[in-house]
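Incident log, entry 3
Record: GNAT family N-acetyltransferase (295 residues)
Problem: checksum mismatch between cached and fresh output.
Input:
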Amino acid sequence: MPDSAPHILTAADGKARAWLFLAESGKNKRVAIANWYSFAFEPVFAGNPSPEQKLRLMEGIARDLLPDAAQLDVYPVTADDGASALFLKAFRKAGWIAVERPMGVNHYLTVDNRDFETYWAGRPGKLRSTVRRKLRSTSLTFEIHHKLTNRLWDDYITVYQRSWKQSEPNLDFLRLIAEQEGKAGTLRLGFAREDGFPIAVQFWTIENGVALIHKLAHDQGADEMSPGTLLSHHMFRSAIDEDKAAIIDYGTGDNPYKTEWMERQRPLYRVDCFNPRFSSAWLPAAKTAISKLVG
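Fresh output:
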């Protein structure tokens, strides 16, 4: 967000602290520092606060926003971990009008101490049959890299340019993530190659038992080889058996292919908060409330 000024708010309650990372989005409007690469947005806490402390901390932050902000929009927010409820309760207690609306879906897998073969036995028969048949005749080779190099980045771009994906709008940002995660030892950059030429790529990170699938693409000209599916088979095996991932997260988006690999899904919410002290917030608040009612 090079054109958006950050607004980072913090609150303390004894040894407990909270931060909320926001940015400007027009006059008197704040939004989450998040984009389509984000898996979830929530406050950051330190000092092991209790649920009651988290609410007090967030209420304090919400009150600090009242003099300058007419609106706040945050997305994607999850509900099963209490993040959505925390936003709603804290901002309402501070005097805001807060509305929650479902805006997306997240597919994920909890491994539950299974090895890959046990997990794989539970996949849909059509997927297992495709992988079995394609692996018998494939000329592809597979590799997973934990460090980024200039050659690997060039290969990543090559695959994207030959895929169905739109041009990547923030290549510098993605490369920075890959470099930082490589230095931290959490990068998993997978390739499927034919005679050394890259035809499929997947960009994962694995940290604290959670595997995040950030980006994937394959060469459209190689569809009959199913390179993306075979590379996924290789990546899931490595994440489960080698990295011992407890959770694998496919991020935002309700793409049908994700249900073949994942076993659970949850809604992602947008939380809109309106400051009644600003007349400019009244009409947007009414429209959002009506939108929630009519679905």
